[in-house]
Write a structure and sequence with these properties.
alpha/beta; Archaeosine Trna-guanine Transglycosylase, Chain: A, domain 4; Rossmann fold; six-stranded mixed sheet
């Protein structure tokens, strides 16, 4: 096995169980590792720090286990079983809810791996070369862990870095074959399109926040911006909203939203879907037309170099919502940009509120749910942040 030796005193982060080894900490490499290969990491005295997946770049190793030289037998099965049992204990796997994230990368001690489960299908996404190399072993372990699992779909063409190292990166079924899926989330039914949809096909991370919106929706005029598959819209309808308008610039997203609304509320006349740019739509609506607005845009900053422009985008978007929302309205506003901290996002929203001159109070500070856990040794795993604001 290839061994990575660290520079003197560069093992401190591993002693704190941080799962990344940066290139600047490496003294030398004994061997010629391939992308994704399992390697051993030792400190300058030759003592074992653990094993992980090798990858070229600033993060040269993502740690899978600590203070050992080899991985234990049945490694993936053991880790996946622990992740599944935690979701069971949190009562996230029930007859009313078969939609959940089973693996959240570092948060489940499997850095570079995402697995979302939709009823009888698991969608596997690799964000590291090592997880790509091990995808078949992971799929086999998933079938042993998740009861009644029929399909494992691999969706990593758009997520893998350093694609030049592989000529076999292709989305497709590792287990099972093409199928359609109606997944259940808190008793509501959604069609999941993992073949063509964003990420793994559905934004599982907003489940609890959608339920919170349902709690506040009774009798309100709801505007759901960046609606994607209409999750917030469907919950708002169940919560008794007087009217719900869903907006997205993607015609495919609008089609999915309309299908999901019809699937859960086949006879409703309270919903309208609009395919249009978000800023253009907000500019044209009448002031005070809506008293509950959801702003859940895609990541404005996917890396640190884009943070400044992202913060301007959040400020501009929220300022327009503050300008338009009715007195006594509620604004659910989110950022899913990992590079944007809670403090940065809150400052952007604060600035937008100040520009509007409205009186604004924070009712809730929102985050990712229990099945998107944050490894306490890896705070970088906190990415979703949101606010529920009362606007006078």
């Amino acid at each position: 096995m290839t061994i990575i030796y660290l520079k003197k005193n560069k093992e401190e982060s591993l002693l704190r169980y941080h799962p990344w080894v940066f290139s600047g900490a490496v003294a030398h490499v004994a061997g010629s590792p391939q992308e994704g290969e399992v390697v051993a990491v030792r400190n300058s005295a030759g003592e074992p720090m653990g094993v992980g997946h090798y990858q070229e770049g600033s993060i040269v190793c993502r740690m899978l286990d600590f203070f050992c030289d080899t991985l234990p037998q049945d490694f993936y099965y053991t880790r996946l079983l622990a992740a599944y049992r935690m979701r069971e204990q949190l009562q996230l796997i029930t007859p009313d809810n078969n939609t959940y994230r089973l693996v959240h990368g570092e948060g489940d001690f499997l850095p570079g791996l995402i697995v979302d489960v939709y009823d009888d299908t698991a969608v596997l996404q690799a964000h590291s070369a090592g997880m790509h190399r091990d995808r078949h072993e992971i799929a086999e372990a998933l079938c042993r862990v998740v009861p009644n699992l029929k399909n494992v779909y691999y969706k990593s063409e758009s997520t893998l870095p350093f694609r030049r190292a592989f000529n076999d990166i292709k989305d497709g079924y590792l287990v099972g074959s093409e199928s359609t899926c109606l997944a259940t989330e808190n008793g509501l039914t959604f069609a999941i399109d993992w073949l063509r949809g964003q990420k793994t096909g559905f934004f599982v991370d907003q489940r609890e926040n959608r339920a919170l919106l349902q709690h506040y929706a009774q009798g309100r005029q709801v505007l759901n911006m960046f609606c994607y598959t209409g999750g917030f819209s469907v919950y708002a309808l169940r919560g008794g909203a007087k009217r719900v308008v869903s907006v997205d610039s993607s015609a495919k997203a609008i089609q999915l939203t309309e299908q999901n609304v019809k699937r859960n509320f086949p006879d409703t006349d309270r919903h309208t879907a609009v395919c249009r740019d978000a800023f253009d739509f907000l500019n044209d609506i009448r002031p005070e037309e809506y008293d509950l607005i959801v702003l859940d845009p895609p990541a404005f900053a996917k890396h640190r170099d884009a943070v400044r422009n992202a913060l301007q985008g959040y400020k501009r978007l929220n300022a327009k919502a503050f300008e338009k929302i009715a007195p006594g309205g509620l604004l659910f506003t989110f950022s899913c940009s990992q590079a944007v901290s809670k403090e940065m996002f809150r400052l952007a929203v604060f600035s937008a509120a100040a520009i509007s001159g409205r009186k604004v109070r924070i009712l809730h500070q929102l985050q990712q749910p229990q099945d998107h856990p944050i490894n306490i040794y890896h705070p970088e795993g906190e990415y979703l942040k949101g606010l529920v604001l009362y606007v006078e």
